[in-house]
Amino acid sequence: MSIAIADVRKCHWQVILNPNALGGKCSQYWQIISEQLANRGIPFTEHLANHTGAGSMISRSLCRQGERHFIILGGDGTLNEVVNGVATSGMDTTEVFIVPFPIGTGNDWARTHNYPQDYLDVFPSFLAGHFFKHDIGLVKSMQDDEVVDERYFINIAGFCFDAAVINEVTKRKKKFIPAGVYLACLLKVLLTYKAKPTVIATTTETLSDSVFTIAVGICKYNGNGMMQVPMGDPADGMFDIVTIRKIPLLKVLANVGNLFKGEHIRLKEVTVMRSDEVRISSGHLTLGEVEGEMLTAGDYHVKCFRQAINMLKIKES
Predict the structure, then answer these.
(1) How far apart are CA 112 and CA 120, in angstroms?
(2) What is the structure's pLDDT at 186?
(3) Which residues of 160-191 are buried (b: 16+ CB within 10 A; e: fewer)?
């Protein structure tokens, strides 16, 4: 469902900038973008999200002050923080309009939506003022049937092996260049990770098996371009849940390339389910992550909120 802002110049935009994104280059790009905004007569106020969690705190506070229009400069993590701030502000998220300028290492959310590689090419779509209503997911970490952590997301929540890789990335990201850290950690974890007995229950079906990894997707991509959920539709109110059951190491290595093409879902070890709600449980603390941020380990309850926030729609060329 598409909607339009008649004139973006009549809205005061709150710019949330992560100066650390893309190795600190985001600040340089902001100088150019801010000039473009000023030259076009678009009113804005700048806010620096210069530490973990700042994007959430800033957007939550601004929403409670009545602000509804946001421009985000940063990667997937910054965008996810802002969505979390909006969703936990207590306001109606359908009143919020978000314009992402994807300036990060992975930009996986932007891949699903065909955002241009050159951040300046976002401007024509922004000036046209066309938005669409995007689903939001909420994942709750559970221990002994009590909620111990929760996080909203608009891309993919990963569990088991996916989260183990992110856990390793979190430990090592300061030691390696961003372009290589994910693959290096993936290979390290791959050599030691074992599938574990897990139950995945949707509103209509249940899978109980030794599970290697789980992706609960609104969109299609994660892990710097892997099309882990190729059927993801961000506005249908449903998760596409891709589960890889126990699989031989050599078969995983042979199919890494297929992950980037979305062809891994053809493997016999892969199960695909669709639902607006899913529960993940086991007899151990399962690792989980959202956009590179680790969740508190446990069991999980994940719920989809249909068309809950307005995101910029890129014009078709």
Answers:
(1) 18
(2) 81
(3) bbbbbbbbbbeeebeeeeeeebbebbbeebbe
Q: Which of 70, 78, 74 lies closest to 95 in space, CA to CA?
A: 70
DSSP string across 211-225: EEEEEEESSS-BTTT
Per DSSP, the residues of the chain read -EEE-S-GGGS-EEEEE-TTGGGGTHHHHHHHHHHHHHHTT--EEEEE--STTHHHHHHHHHHHTT--EEEEEE-HHHHHHHHHHHHTTTS-GGG-EEEEEE-SS--HHHHHTT--SSGGGGHHHHHHTEEEEEEEEEEEEEETTEEEEEEEESSEEEEEHHHHHHHHHHHHTTTS-HHHHHHHHHHHHHTT---EEEEEEESS-EEEEEEEEEEEESSS-BTTTB-SSTT--TTSS-EEEEEEES--HHHHHHTHHHHHHTGGGGSTTEEEEEESEEEEE-SS-B-EEETTEEPPSBEEEEEEEEEEEEEEPPPP-
Angle 151-154-160 (CA atoms, 0-180°, nearest 5)? 60
Q: Which is it for strands 44-48 and 69-74: parallel, antiparallel or unpaired?
A: unpaired
Below-50 pLDDT ranges, the chain: 175-177
| Contact (Cβ atoms closer than 8 angstroms) between residue 150 and residue 293 | no
Look at the pTM and tell me if it is higher than 0.85: yes
Question: Phi and psi for 3 in degrees, rounded to 5?
Answer: -135, 165
Say what the pLDDT of residue 174 is. Answer: 55
Determine contact, residues 221/108, Cβ cutoff 8 Å. yes
Residue 44: exposure state from Cβ atoms within 10 A (0-12, 13-18, ≥19): middle
pLDDT of residue 81: 97
Distance CA 71, CA 94 (A): 16
The partner residues of 17 in beta bridges, in order of sequence, read: 48, 73
